[in-house]
Design brief:
The complex is a heterodimer of chains A (about 120) and B (about 260). Chain A is α+β, with helices and mostly antiparallel strands and about 120 residues long. Chain A has 2 helices and 6 strands. Chain B has 9 helices and 10 strands. In chain B, strands 1-6-5-7-4-8-9-10 form an 8-stranded parallel beta sheet, sandwiched between helices. Chain B has a two-stranded antiparallel sheet with strand order 2-3. Chain B is globular. The chains are: A alpha+beta (about 120), B alpha/beta (about 260). The structure holds guanosine-5'-triphosphate (GTP), magnesium ion (MG) and zinc ion.
């Protein structure tokens, strides 16, 4: 369902990796010195314009000169879940068809699948 | 006119990864010791929250100035610039227009658009071969060089790309995707996010249909499969055939925004 291929939109993922590194660096408590960040936990919706492999690739390259050096980018992919505004059915969208599975209504709400969120960072004790 | 140097990469080089001085008290935040021996610190932030915030500011500014902003997106070469030239032809001077055009490294598009008489801001994304989308801060800078009081409609020609621009809000009022009959009918299902995020779709280059095996009904069906009920304007930017309903749609959208 997602379009990008490794390599094709590397620039896009670079920019996003950059933002992740900024936010994660920003989240290290001020009173901690020489911390080692082991993991950055990210939630990526399946509808988001991001290819997880490309993102990890970019993250590893640019994390090198930052406090996130060596950190692992852990990506949790989130399913696309929709709810029908007419019959209130909730279902997981697995193909690019965005009308109600049950009543075929086109008036639907996307409940999840658009995430591109940093959930947490994990620091070595 | 040229604005450059907004590329994320440059930003990165100048930005040192030091902790900013003005962050909120993070030590009081939610911290959890994991079994693996690491300490987890909750962050819970949108990766693109900086862009989203800037987009909201842009939207406020455009509202205050009474400017309707249209973000036009497509694959490279689908006909955005041609469509804009012809659209401006049709609606100026009745509607006061301005254009921001993102182009990876040439001024070709801007040169074409300047001929319409509308003020044009060209954004070149730099020597790295270019960014793949226009971000909200780039629009903010570009809009700053326009006299927004003298503009009713600001059209943004985004970078030719069906993936990234869909993820970046620029503070626009409406988004339009241009698809041409020389591309595959299945583009909408391959790039669903773009088609879902748009308020209208254009099927361009219909003058070429007699020479192609293109199934336009299938293309429209795929668009509606991804985004039911979205208006689809089938037209030829080259000959202007079918351009009327598209122009009416823009006017209708603009009058809906008026206070
Ligand atoms: N036959 C035909 N050709 C068209 C039409 N619209 C655009 N073209 C041609 O398609 C080519 C690309 O058009 P542009 O308007 O530059 O496309 P664009 O989307 O702005 O391209 P980029 O900015 O490079 O992504 C040019 O050769 C245009 O003359 C059309 O309606 N019919
Ligand atoms: Mg163009
Ligand atoms: Zn339903």
């Amino acid at each position: 369902m997602r379009a990008g291929v490794l390599g094709e939109f590397i620039l896009h993922e670079m920019g996003i990796a950059m933002q992740i590194i900024e936010i994660a660096t920003d989240s290290i408590p001020d009173d901690m010195e020489n911390v080692i960040v082991e993991r950055v936990n990210l939630k990526v919706g399946k509808l988001a314009a991001v290819v997880p492999d490309s993102l990890r690739f970019c993250f590893d390259i640019i994390a090198k000169d930052t406090p996130l050096k060596g950190a692992k980018l852990v990506i949790k992919e989130i399913d696309v879940v929709a709810r029908c505004n007419d019959c209130h059915t909730e279902w997981t969208i697995t193909e690019p068809v965005f009308s109600c599975k049950k009543c075929k209504s086109g008036s639907i709400e996307i409940l999840s699948g658009r995430e591109l969120d940093i959930d947490s960072i994990e620091i070595a004790e | 006119m040229q604005i450059s140097g907004f590329n994320n990469f440059k930003y990165c080089h100048h930005h040192e990864f030091h902790k900013p001085h003005h962050t909120h008290a993070k030590t009081g935040g939610h911290v959890e010791v994991k079994k693996s021996g690491t300490r987890e610190i909750k962050v819970v932030r949108r990766v693109l929250d900086v862009n989203e915030k800037m987009a909201r500011q842009n939207r406020e500014l455009f509202k205050e100035k009474g400017v309707f902003v249209l973000n036009v997106m497509s694959s490279p070469g689908s006909g955005k610039t041609t469509l804009l030239e012809k659209t401006l032809d049709e609606i100026m001077p009745e509607i006061k227009c301005a254009v921001i055009v993102g182009d990876i490294c040439t001024t070709n598009d801007a040169d074409r658009l300047v001929k319409t008489g509308a003020p044009v801001v060209q954004i070149n994304t730099d020597e790295f071969g270019g960014d793949c989308h226009l971000a909200a801060h780039v629009i903010e800078k570009s809009a700053g060089s326009l006299d927004l009081d003298a503009v009713d409609l600001l059209i943004v020609e985004n970078i030719g790309n069906l993936v990234c621009p869909a993820e970046f809000d620029i503070g626009e009022d409406a988004r339009v995707v241009v698809l041409s009959v020389t591309e595959g009918e299945d583009k909408p299902v391959k790039y669903p996010l773009m088609f879902r995020e748009c308020d209208a779709a254009i099927l361009n280059k219909t003058d070429l249909l007699p020479y192609l095996d293109y199934d336009r009904e299938l293309a429209v069906k795929y668009i509606h499969q991804v985004h039911p009920d979205i208006p689809v304007f089938e037209l030829s930017a080259k000959t202007k055939e079918g351009i009327g309903p598209w122009i009416d749609w823009i006017k209708g959208m603009m009058s809906r925004k008026k206070p």
